[in-house]
Specification:
Length: 119
Amino acid sequence: MARTNKFNIEDNIVNSIIGEGSEFKGEFNINGLLRIDGKFKGTIATDGKVLIGQTGEAITDIKARVVVIGGTVKGNIYATERVIMLSTGTIHGNVITPSLIMEDGVIFEGNCTINKRQE
């Protein structure tokens, strides 16, 4: 099933950002894209994308459509579409997703389950 233009546009609009040098603790429920370049501790739920930047550190469980890891995540990731682990990324936790992209250089300690996409 092809993605609509709505999702392509939403993937590029940052709804919320935790900037470098900032710290946030709690529960983050949003629509759209969340970018973390600072420190976050808690839970994240979105029907959009979560991007952990190269300077980002997150102790969290993430439920999202797409998750991109360029920084450090300690916790579990459940993505309904895909997880992208960039070469600068470090993950200590489990990943459940229908699609996984992992660049050379990733540090990944945990289990990964590739599940079938929901139609």
